[in-house]
Amino acid sequence: MTASLSSSSLSASTPVILVGVDLGFSHFDGELQELGLLAETAGMQPVADLVCKRKAPDPALFIGSGKAEELKLLVDMHQAKEVLFDQALSPAQQRNLERFLQCPVNDRTMLILEIFAQRARSHEGKLQVELARLQYLSTRLVRRWSHLERQQGGIGQRGGPGETQIELDKRMIGEAIKRTKEKLQKVKKQRGTQRRQRQRHGVFTVSLVGYTNAGKSTLFNTLVKAQAYAADQLFATLDTTTRQMYLEGAQTSVSLSDTVGFIRALPHGLIDAFQATLQEAIDADLLLHVVDAANPNYREQIGQVQQVLAEIGASAIPQVLVFNKLDAIEPAQRPLRLQDHYEVDGQMLPRIFVSAAANQGLDALRELLTQRVLQAPTAAAREFSDLPPICSVEPDKGESLF
């Protein structure tokens, strides 16, 4: 028998308790808003939350014995079926909490993995999620067995003589990881062939990147008149979709790709597993960094996206910031100018405000892309990051929040 991540507790309307620990980091979400959205995306219903402050996690119970008692009362009071932590738990902490609370306990990493597993549609996407799931599971086998020393092997057994259950599980998961990596390598080669064909034909490539639920897929559909899945939810898109977009001003088409959204504390295993998909961003001539302008945390979300881009080796690719959802901003708080520059990591990046849903500002975005294509006539040219700014206005100095 092989241990596996159980999804039985993640059925629709499962009542769950949310837990967040303020460890002094600036990105701490005191209202657990994003964790709640993740839970709802996975089909669960948050019924209560517990927020506490600590200098460091408790090695045994993460939140300490006192708060663990409070959490147990909440679980009993609300008849919760599961507890979700906003931070990553060690296998030992997870095991100890489950024993203490007498209910399943999972963390942000596992929750994101579950959502990815639910949303993956293509063969490639499913392979990538499976690889990340197996890698995560391989570090947590210890919590799935209370009989670690039960011997397997002997006549008729799959394990070798004297092989313990945990050793058998590790070996089987290791073999599964190897098989999945081999399949993904084939997919990566296929994508590489497609990219080389586009480069040989001199196609200018643009990739949409951004925080999850920033409206990338809606913008993609509007620009190329496609029907890629788009919804007001986290991780609506996992699979890269590429279409040709004709720019009348440049008298040519560009290749536009919609990619998976990023999120705070995106598990490294997912970043590694999704290399084949994220390669579209790495090899692009231009990144359209889509930002949810109506989200009060948009500055932090920009920073999180920049961090992931650096991790995958795409930080040097030229970017244009596309502040989306202009229609969702209160009129009194809307920007004074719809095109300017915005400082990110010490660099002034071109910025444009649009609403993909309301079809606002898209002609100006197409014109901006046209200028980029005319400045970089070949797909192989990446030196245009040193060209003069495409937009002559100075950064906004008005009273707008932007």
Topology:
Elements lengths: L13 E9 L10 H9 L2 E10 L10 H15 L3 E4 L5 H11 L3 E3 H12 L3 H16 L26 H36 L3 E7 L5 H9 L16 E7 L4 E7 L9 H6 L1 H8 L3 E7 L5 H14 L7 E6 L14 E6 L2 E7 L8 H14 L27
Parallel strand pairs: 1-2, 1-3, 3-4, 5-7, 5-8, 8-9, 9-11
Antiparallel strand pairs: 6-7, 10-11
Helix pairs in contact: 1-4, 4-5, 5-6, 6-9
Please characterize this protein's 3D structure:
The chain is an alpha/beta fold. The protein folds into three domains: 8-115, GTPase HflX, N-terminal domain (Rossmann fold), CATH 3.40.50.11060; 120-181, no CATH class; 201-386, P-loop containing nucleotide triphosphate hydrolases (Rossmann fold, 3-Layer(aba) Sandwich), CATH 3.40.50. The chain has helices at residues 33-41, 64-78, 91-101, 108-119, 123-138, 165-200, 216-224, 268-273, 275-282, 298-311, 362-375; strands at residues 14-22, 44-53, 82-85, 105-107, 204-210, 241-247, 252-258, 286-292, 319-324, 339-344, 347-353. The strands form two sheets. Strands 6-7-5-8-9-11-10 form a seven-stranded mixed beta sheet, with helices on both faces. A four-stranded parallel beta sheet has the order 2-1-3-4, with helices on both faces. Strand 6 and strand 7 form a beta hairpin. Mean pLDDT is 82; it is low at 1-11, 145-158 and 379-399.
